[in-house]
Amino acid sequence: MSTETGNTYTVDTEPAVESIEEIELNEYDTRPVAKFVVAFLIGGVFFLLPVPYQGEVTVPFDIVVSNITGTFPDAVGVYSLAIIVAGGVLTTLAMVGDGEVSGYDVSYFETSTVFWLLRVAGLVLAPVMFFKLGPGWLHTPSTGGLMWNTLVYSVGVIIPIGAIFITIFVELGGLEFVGTLARPIMRPLFKVPGRAALDSLASWVGSYSVGLYVTRNVFEAGGYHKRDVFTIATCFSTVSIGFVGVVAATLEILPLFPLVFGAYFLCVVVTGAILVRLPPISTTPEEYIAEPDPEVAFSGSPTDYVRLATSEAVGKAEAGETFAEAAKRGFVDGLKLTSLILGTILAVGLAATLLSAHTPLFDILGQPLTPLIAALGIPNAEVVAPATIVGITEMYVPVLLVTETATKAKFFVAVLAVSQLIFFSSVGPMIMDMFSDVPIRFRELVALFVMRTVILLPLIAGITHALAALGFL
């Protein structure tokens, strides 16, 4: 039973826990089984299959995105300019009109005044970045060049391409299968539905952009309440495995990649398990924005979970769209979402990177941490300390600060930079804009960044010293 209050819904009573004998399983007819299996393989291959490429091991998704942005940079630039301008214009029309322009419904683009202004700022900045107008310092590789040529281009391509394959995977049974199998871990550890494992997996192997796209779709379908979304967006919007490799390569510790990634995984799990039990996450209401569709309460053996997961997946595949319909809808939804957030990312991200590059703010903020870093036994404390703070602007900046430090300092910062998760060149404004109906606010993201950092500093220091004692560092 659920109760509707205004535009939100709450679940009145928790469903009784059922066993496999009490659940009516779907019949495994040939056609829906084939749809699920093919969709699962398509998603699995595209996002998960390791393949050698240009001397590295990566996944097809990364290869496709890299080839598009690397082979057609001018076309991607025009596309990015056009979609940011479209987002700014359509948002303005939605905010000043009645939600409809020449018969086209633009209510999708309605937002708060703050994000309207940020999208308009993005609209103004996009031509400046595209045509390289203004002073040279605006377009350096660590400021405008990073934002426009790397982050804007990547996010602009990642979301619509990723949305095609993730929609096929989700709509034809993949979400039910992964979510059911993950319930025994996700609910006790992180207090979220098992289906949240797919959002996290999409971030690990693809991009936080794809993970957030999945979260938004499930939220709009009633599969998550607001606290679920807050948890997933701020604790599981992780950087991809590939980017962890980039960080390790930049610091010339690529041979230590398995250790860096293992430490990163542990840090994300530990911080997530702690933060979901603390404000602001724990105080977020359990309200849905659509008719609630919570997971079936279930208890059974591992075999029972596999049976239920397969049944749920086949049932979803049977009722779901065709492959072509899912792909088309995913691409269109991906383009619409990109038009919403890309201008915001450009405006906020450019401000953050300029602040980091041209003011002493983060050096000043980092100075009080120097004694703490030294007390934790991390070498080059005076360099590492600012790196612990500057990651709030862009996750890659701390890495660039410690390229000339000792190996232990490099390892410490590499793991810290990718584990802090919240940064305002991209994921911060993306979360605030995509989930303004939760809402997830700027001050809460800053507080969570600080909380994550407080947890991570001693944790990563302990991991660093343990690995050094074992002779790995």
From TrEMBL:
The keyword Transmembrane applies. The chain crosses the membrane at residues 36-55, 75-96, 108-131, 151-175, 229-249, 256-276, 337-357, 369-392, 412-433, 445-472. The keyword Transmembrane applies. Residues 153-251 form the Nucleoside transporter/FeoB GTPase Gate domain. It holds the Pfam family Gate. Keywords: Membrane, Transmembrane, Transmembrane helix. This is YjiH family protein.
